[in-house]
Amino acid sequence: MAEKKAQTYANHVRWDPLFHFFVLPVFFLLALAGTVHFIWRPGLHSALMFIVAVALAIAVLKIRLYALRVQDRVIRLEERLRLASLLPEPLRSRIPELSIGQLAGLRFASDAEVAKLVERALSENLSRADIKKAIQTWRPDYLRV
To answer: What is the DSSP string of the chain?
Structure first.
């Protein structure tokens, strides 16, 4: 098995080529074609083609968003458990104040720097991106959807 490339803020975004570069464009073009066909040749058949094309495009996007929402919930649970074991008591009691976005950003922080980043996230209301940019020692996540 090939060794995985070291993950950083610059390269951590995950692209799924089949989804992002095939499925999404195909369904977008199908919806566009249905719209054009309906405008050029209004009628029952073209209206149905338009409705089905738009419904399919929406379904593909919603299915992807559902998977991402489930992933965010799992990340929230994992990070709350991780932080409960790593943080000192004053910060541990503030874990519920962290947003899902902040928890998702913190998952990339090493155990050694997570307490400092949690404190900054709470006091400065850092965004997911700000937290990721502040990480010194990146903890990779290769199992994302």
So the answer is: -PPPPPP-TTT-----HHIIIIIHHHHHHHHHHHHHHHHHS-SHHHHHHHHHHHHHHHHHHHHHHHHHHHHHHHHHHHHHHHHHHHS-HHHHTTGGGS-HHHHHHHTTB-TTTHHHHHHHHHHHT--HHHHHHH-SSB-------
pLDDT in tens, 63-74: 999 988 998 999
Residue 119 token pair: 């404190």
Report d(CA 83, CA 93) in Å as an integer: 10
Q: How far is CA 100 from CA 45, 128, 140, in A?
A: 45, 9, 18
129 vs 83: CA distance, rounded Å: 19
Mean pLDDT, rounded, of the chain: 89
User: Looking at this protein, which amino acid is placed at residue 71?
Assistant: Q
Rounded CA-CA distance 87/109 in Å is: 13
